[in-house]
Batch of 4 targets.
Target 1
Amino acid sequence: MKLSSLWLLALVPGAVCAVVKLGDSNAQELDEDGIPAILAQASNDPTIIGQEGAKNHITFGDGSSGNFKVSLFLRDGMDPESKRRRRKERRRRMKSFAEQPLSNGTTAALSNIRDYYYYGYIAIGNPPQKFSVVFDTGSSNIWVPGEACPSDACTQHRRFINRASTTFRASPQQIQIQYGTGFIAGDIGSDSVRVTGSLALRNQSFAMTRLEDKTFQLPRSQFDGLFGLGFTGGAEGGVRSPVDTMMREKILTQPLFGIKLFRGSENGNGEITFGSFDASYASQLQWIDVYGDIFWATTMEGIFYGDEPRNYLYNADKINAASASMTPAQRARASRKALLDTGSSLIYGDPFTLAAMSVRIGADTMTGEIPCSALGALKPFHFILGGRRFSMAPNEYVFHDPATGVCEVQWMPVSEYLWIMGIPFLQSYYTVYDIKAHKMGLARMKR
């Protein structure tokens, strides 16, 4: 992945994982049981807070400024017999899963895992082999476990058997992707990739992993692989991205796709529709330009709280003032950027801005926690993206864990330049991605 922000896989309840992108190389390795490995240094020991099975954090740093936390969940401890039963149940589910058809039409259903990530299903080859994947607007490659991969992360998931497909074509190309706490390497091939029952890419390049580190093992990774929705400019290995293949093969009724991510508290999952979008949102969509030809990024001009005049985005006023005399193209290059990312579990941005936002609402700048009793007095935050305002209500930017009674903000400091608007933001907005026009449309999700 060419994007400087990298992936981190953290744990979530029920033995599944959260997909989070980070730009910091200090991420700690998780051991085979999903517990942070003790990579102890004199002043940099990871600290786990909370009860097993409940929401927890790893805190990096020595207690001074500059620390940050990673939200995670620890799974309940299991004895060998429980683990055996879980493996047996997993095999049963995998067999049952392989017999289920893909979604009809051009809409793929997405499963919501505790608001931390969403995954759907694709089929590769002829006869088709099914896989569960995260549909990710923050990357541009497809990869699934390969048959020859000996890693536990591969053997625990469905693996692509290329010799079983009559339409598979091998390639001498190989791929390596280093994530925040994960790594995959594999071989590139091409085959038909079916996204829904009526939508198939006839000749799509994808990677079959031959190595996956423990980050992608069960129980933390329920999904088999990734399906990148970015442009070819963001693809590793010199391959064409799936969305560009869709354009090249002219299989979309309209050159776009739309995504809905419902909150778990609303008993919702999600869906992605290719070639059209929900017409009931047409009059409400606010369209913004995509910057560049890598991922679904746009300019970011400010962050405001309630009706206050202060711009909380660090240095935004200086940047906006300096770019006033520039051409639109120059102004876009000079401004901050924000990526709409369906593969990220939180909102990530520069530490200066997020610290100021936390202070303003009374949240702890180190832990992100805020008294739940304060939620009723909070006001919305307004994000200026592509010159348009998009708001998040307090119950959208603060996560309330009913199991522990803890409330905490849904953002984390990572990068000074690039902001990542992850799942908490995207749950608030129905998003339409116009591949040909390089635009994104956002409309308030209907409840």
Target 2
Amino acid sequence: MDLTLLISMIAAALIGTALYTIIGIVPGTDETAVIAPITLALVLAGIEPIVVLTFYLSAIIAHKLTDSVPVAVAGIPGGVMATPMVEHALVLKRYGESDTSIRKMVSGSVIGTLVSVPISLLLASALIPVSDVIKDYANPLLFAGAVLLALLSKNRWLALIIIIPFALLIQGLRSLYWSLNIVPEGTNVFISFFLGITIGPVIITLFDLLNKEKRTSLVRNRKNTIVFNETKQDKGFPNPFKILSPKEIGLSSLASAIGSFTFILSAVGTTTLIGELFSNREKDPVKKSSLAIACMEALANATYISGSLIPLIALGIPLSSVALGPANALFNAPPVFTLEHNLHHILSMGDFLWATLIGIGISLVLTYFVIVRYSKQICTFVFKWIPHEAILGLFLGLVLLLAFMDAGWMNIGGVLLIGLVAGVLHRWGVNFGVQFMVLYSAPWIISILA
């Protein structure tokens, strides 16, 4: 490998680690909303594909390790994937074990990463011989995936019913653009619609604030007072295998293996289901919550790694909720990447290995050490000086800019419409995975109906 390229990959891993170590701690920063736009911007900027992949993997690991910290110290999830752990983290906080909570979570992340990476690479290699068969049925599989994820959603019947109307909305806007000659006929506006879905919950919240009745009904609170417990400092590099008990290590490893094989399913749903299942037999509340958060954090990391690497290496199509979400720009970012020409077609197996080792390795070691040692200081800085509204406002601005670049001023209105609908659906319990799979399979769904 070229030395310049290697240095670029290491630099990308360091930048991704530093950036998302901070962003991950900011409450309310959803993984897809904060990782997908930056990854997309790097792809469109013409950065080397292997460097972009290294950045993405480091960002995922850093964000997943840090988004559990605000849960432990304040009961506030950093991202969507940290939400299932809130209840258990509050139990440990009530018993004065916030420090234990942080250490268990990040140690679980380490276990999940160490288990998932080899399984993902092996499973991807095993799927390569049948990848052409899978790709031939890509559209029906994406539609089937939308149905499956809808059945696993909180509001399953609404999620099922909305599949066809949402596909009509997407294809209707595309047809409108064609008829007005905004884009050439046959050109599918994709990136901005994808980002509209991603930022949907932010858009619907902003529109809520324009509603006078809704605005006046909002609860006003004084400034929150967050108390940090004193933390114990270990000498040397903290060992995750000593922080977790043998039972926690065993069940976290098993949960990670299950999560790696079920990469196509909803990451949040799988994390909640298996985490609760594994911890239910434990009667002591502290031990139960410690076991639950270790398993959930391990499983969350595993689903994100496998959901990114397996479709990328084996298929070249985003056949998982993670690939359809934060990793989407690695599959489809016209004009740079398309479903017929993306990282799957450009990079060799050796390239994927190097990007995985550098991106995940650097991020895992640095973020783990920093969080175990300095979580209190980082949280103090982030909670005091970095409002999550500012972060989300930055990404909303980027989305609107990309919408204009995709199809002009008219498309800003289209993206806001998509975002409003997606935000309402998300609020009603229709997860992003369903919406993203409908976005991909919309042309096929409408062609079948027509």
Target 3
Amino acid sequence: MEGETVKSEIDADLQLRYSHWKKNTKLLYDYLNTNTSKWPSLTCQFFPDIDTSSDTHRLLLSSFTSGQLPEDENVYIANLSTLKHVNWANLNNFDMNELEFKPDNSIKFPPKHLTTNLTIKFPLGDCNRARYMPQNPDVIAAASSSGDIYVFDRTKHGSRRLRKSLHDLDNQDGDGNNIIENAHYEAKFKDDDGNNDNKIVIDNIENINDNEAVSISWNLQKEGTLVAAYSKGSIKTWDLKKFNVKDKNIHKPKWNITTFDSEGCNDVNWMPLHDSIFAAAGESTNSLALFDTRTQRETSKIRSGFHNTGINACKFNYGNNMLLASADNDGMINLWDIRNLDEIPIMTLNHESSVSTIEWNPNEHFVLASAGQQDGLVKLWDISQEDKLEEDNSSSKLIFVHAGHMLGVNDLSWDLHDPWLISSVSNDNSIHIWKPAANIVQPA
């Protein structure tokens, strides 16, 4: 406010921590690329493809304006080369004066930082989470704060279509409200009575559903099947194959349960090698359960006492589908054998601060990453390590801490091609792509 001193969101201790981290980055990382965007992203995911000629990776991101600037709300795809294709360790490239390897001057380098390849205007609300369909990565689903789930076909969006979409936002109804007619998405999962004229009022907040879609997960075995978690506690599965070209809105979920957690459902995740079983996590302390879509009820659930606060995330292990991880607002991370989900967890880790999300490494199956919602730290755990306390009282299973973000981390993603390459996005508008030093995480 004018005339008042605006207090910095980042306190002195965090700034000091960042300063120490920055001084040591050359020792901590084999690769580090830091980027700052105009708006923070609530989501990130590495695409499964890679351009080997230039070692270019693609990353799915979003812009979160919290309703401040709806025209800036979008989902976008960015490219980045980690330069692995460059032959650095060549004696011909050794600089005797500076005593280091330098590439040949004739080498043409790709851009140093992330470059936006494609931007898709987000139709309504904020994008809480975006994920590509594993069977066809050109198909992208995005969970909206409006309660809808939008589905985009990457191949049908580009600069010309984007300009037309932005022009559509200038259309207004008789009351001066902006409307979107046949909004720029290919399909939409919308659970209502089916009466929809494809017009959405976006200036009148009362018309926006307050039951947000907060998390989504594509089924790895059934193409087009997606499960979604909602802020009022319901869980729905949707089938993209129900799409009809005459009506891009899919109104009826394939499977629906409204009684999971009255306080809210935070995360859902399909079992990788099963087409009907998924896990769900909610705000109640015992809201971690397995569901089988062949039935209309939960098949198993944890007992009270193992999580003391709301459970924010749950993820199946890629290498062992019987292993499920969950993380809560206190930073407690529990590992469960789903065959005995009602018994004590087989292992407990402590992030020591609220965890926003967790991700298993798809290549190194014993490695789990946890993202700090408050402390801004990403911690890597190796559950195969012998369980003992280090000199600083930290767990021996904690193998690395990424301290480059200054505010809470919203999402993270492992790369499928480089086993230790990871991306993380934060509320400080930063997007980091990094790889911890091999001598730290893979000691001889």
Target 4
Amino acid sequence: MWAPQQEHSVSQLILVRTAAVIASVPRTAWAVSWGVRTGLAYARCMATHPDHSTEAYQADLSALHEASASRLRRLCQSNGGVYVKAAQLLSTAQSIPQEYRQKLEVLQDRAEPRGFEEVQLAVLQELGAPIEELFAEFEPQARAAASLAQVHKARLLDGREVAVKVQYVGLETAVTADFTTLSVLAKAAAQWFPNSFDFGWVLQELKQNLGKELDFRMEARNAQRLAACMAGRRRVAIPEPVPQLSGERIITMEWMDGCKLTDLERLRDLHLHSRDVAIELLQAFAQMTFVDGFVHGDPHGGNILVRPHPEPQSFWYRWFGGGWVEPQLVLLDHGLIVEIPDTLRQQYCQLWCSFILNDQDTAQAIATHIAGKRGGELLPKLVRPGALRNEDQRRALRTQAGVNTLGDLGRMLEGLPRPFVDFLKVQAIIRGAATKLGSSLHDRLRINATYALKGMSISRLPDGAVAYEGSMQSSRKRLGISVSIAALRSLWWVGSTAICLWRNVISAFSGTDSYVRHPA
């Protein structure tokens, strides 16, 4: 009985993969059409305005960027899969026109869920048995569907609720066809506009990322390692994989509910204060970056949920909560991880500690080790919070660094260590989310400095050595940093506690909830 069922599933698999190849044809045609039309439009614009320094050229170019970016967003959203991943990657690249970044950054990784028959086929092929033998319950309707996979809620035979992430059947075939199309378009763009942004590194990174994201066994290992890193953080939860029901194209994990990270209205309904969430978010990612060197690489809103802490409230919230509930972050989707080499992690910790001392010479020396002479002059001003407060300062920095065209900026970014660029992009996403949730510049400075100091003395190198730079070589200076950060945290804690007690007194008399700023 099993042999005929398996033979039938193989024939179904062949049909699905054939359909994937056929479906790639209209996607390719649309992409090529966009590329040709856009290339001709830019060529006409440049031919119409021989002098590229005029305001008329800049205005026409900006309007062209806007129109082309809108068409590109529609194309990527409709084509899905690789196109959505490529667009999301481009939206984080500071070296492409702002109009493109603004259009592409709102692109959502959504897709129409596949039919349940295809899910049954995928489970049978990957896990070797039909769904009804492996699960007590399995919802036929997907809870979420993205470009590479969809998620179903299920119940195990022992009663545990789980999320089953199923990769689309035939996806590898579609990815190969779509990636070939994007490669051809990128090479054509490089020939047409040699002084503009080179998309080569984007495609290379996309190819590497897809290789990781398409192997769910790697995601399971990443989840387990990140859970070990976060084991000491009460307010961070990571779903536990179920190894016996996971494979290369299917991963089964513990089910965890929660609301979207930046859903402010829902957070308030759950009595979760948004700034408390922001503080925990900043702390968790500061620990990943400065201490662990193992950073969640795709922290967009859909991959970070927030829920009331499932365990009894901590001492602070019991006594000083003022009606607010202790939050817990739930980190999902661990297919992309940024692993920071330990030498680079130590250097980044020292760079941040040099900011505390306001030691510009040490900061530049460390930045030069990371990014070379040219990047060393630019990096401290880009990384240090509040260093660039207006457009005039940013323009002066671009002039100082010799970045006059998109091509210049692209080449400079290519000279930086790849993990460094990757975790800077992650930090930019986290900074934006934390700001929306109500955190301040001082919060980020205090939290990053705290974890940079902690991570600076940790070495995972074979010899266990820490190569201190500049003033960081002085134990007296390092002690001074420790004292400064301890004093800063103590003052903030005392001030927060005093404010909290006062507002709780007011709350007791007025009968309204008061906001508590818990210590970081």
